[in-house]
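User: New here, please read:
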Amino acid sequence: MKSCLPALAFALIVVAGCTTTPPPEPAPQPERLSQQVARTTLEKAQQAYDEGDYAKALSTLKSGGVSVFEAAEPSTRLDAMKLEAFSYCVANQIAECRLQFRKILDAFPTFELNVAERKHPVWGPAFEAAKRMKR
């Protein structure tokens, strides 16, 4: 039995040395620069909106031009377009609000406001009017 121990130990070392460890997880890819710019612009506009400065929210959304959000991920682009529509609505620029909702529906045909948003006294009716214009 003693003569088998060195062979057994050697076999265990060889087997242990043959096991492969899984490859490391790939490093997360850096976010595209265009997406970073779009997110930063959207965050600044959202902050202005939250502070009640709707004119600043609109100017921030438009500061980078359409191209800032055109190259962004669809969810970021939609959020920016929706914030622009809401900003027009609360700034009492109803025609621009409806037009922005039409642009959203052109880009995202299945878009719907959530229940609470549909009940808003200004942008709920503006959105419904945009939907009717779309037909």
Remarks:
- The mean pLDDT is 82.
- The CA atoms of residues 24 and 54 lie 47 Å apart.
